Amino acid sequence: xxxxxEAEMKRMANELLKPTRIYVKPVLSALAQFNKKERLIxxxxxxxxxxxxxxxxxxxxxxxxxxxxKCSWDAPAIFKLIQCKGSVPDAEMYHTLNxxxxxxxxxxxDIAADVIGFLDTHxxxxxxxxxxxxxxxxxxxx
Length: 142
Description:
The chain is an alpha+beta fold. It is built from seven helices and five strands. The chain starts with 5 loop residues before the first helix and ends with a strand.
């Protein structure tokens, strides 16, 4: 709030007050579709307070890190504006805000495209934003 003036907040009210997308039905449908015989969807994280670093780390096994590729999606312009006007470092932006990513599903690599396509049929825009690698339950934004 301290980054934007009152006039800017009023002008951007629609963007700033946009309701959170509810993912329950499409995610439950994806679980039913892909986890019939084997747990192919390995984890789910709603990206809210604590955003990427805290939320994703909670669903990782102890020997896995997540590497998130920030260039794999276009963050909404409002986040770029806040970061620029407030001189907010990347780490703080990705720790505090969702940068346009409302939910993360951790899936087996070989079904990622199928899950993305499935979610698209449920009107959920999805994309691959990272990968799981050997590690110590950390999240890296690169």
